[in-house]
Amino acid sequence: MRRGLALAIVLILAALSLIIAESAIAQSIPKPSVPEFTVRLIDHPYNVPSSTTTSTDPYTGKQTITTYPGYHVQNSSIEVSIKNQQFTPYSINNQNTLSLFYNVSYKGHYTGDWTYYPWNGSYSRNSYAVTRIPQSTSDYTVVQFAPPTEGQMDFRVQAQIGYYDSYQDDSVPVPGAPFTHYIFTGEVSGWSNTQTINLADGSVTVSTSLTPNPTPSSTVPEFPLWTIPLLLTVMVALAGLVVYHKKRN
Question: Which residues contact residue 6 at a Cβ distance below 8 angstroms, ignoring those fewer than 6 apart?
Fold first, then answer.
């Protein structure tokens, strides 16, 4: 009985230490602000000149001249420019370096399914199969998209302060496997207002309400404060039982 009670006390002490340590980590990571960004349609048109080729029949020696007409390429792209926030990367617990990242997601205007950019696989609660977008060293972090030829697209941006751990996923034997997944630990902002760009004329409209916080908001465990005194109370009670049994023996 005494050994069992002693083991229980040790386990409770270990759990209490883990809770305090993880709570300290959660409190040491600041929450980023909701990002400000602009979206615009950029045209890089160019002309491909006409060209001709000459081929010779190997049996008759007859030459054939083929002319290819020139053509015009619109070559449009969408640029998302995110205003960088004041943040200097630093180490936490002398192990992980906290940095500021951005999530950019987009969708067709007439659907509710958002896609993360740049995309490289699936998305789950705490696992991102995406290429991370770190904050640049200039005033703005810029990403570009290849848009469809017509219609409207929605964009939104989210900020992250924390760090990523990566692992290789080879659970699905398909070409390109294994895939690299990134597990984020830290704090995230809410999503920005949604900006809608019209691909016909490049006009942009902004929604009037912020998108609710996404899942995951953070992978750092956040424990309610009442769990700490509860564990302390249980530990004291078990210690009292040990003393009681010693006195009886």
Answer: 242
- The CA-based dihedral angle spanning residues 114, 97, 82, 206, taken in that order and rounded to the nearest 10 degrees: 40
Ramachandran region, residue 37 (left: φ > 0; alpha: ψ -120 to 50; beta: rest): beta
- pLDDT tens-digit profile of 132-145? 799 999 999 999 98
Rounded Cα–Cα distance for residues 77 and 75 (Å): 7
| Mean pLDDT taken over the chain | 78
Q: Which of 212, 197, 185, 162 is nearest to 41 (CA)?
A: 197
Which helix (H) or strand (E) segment holds residue 148: the answer is none
Contacts of 81 (CB under 8 A, 6+ apart): 37, 38, 39, 40, 140, 141, 142
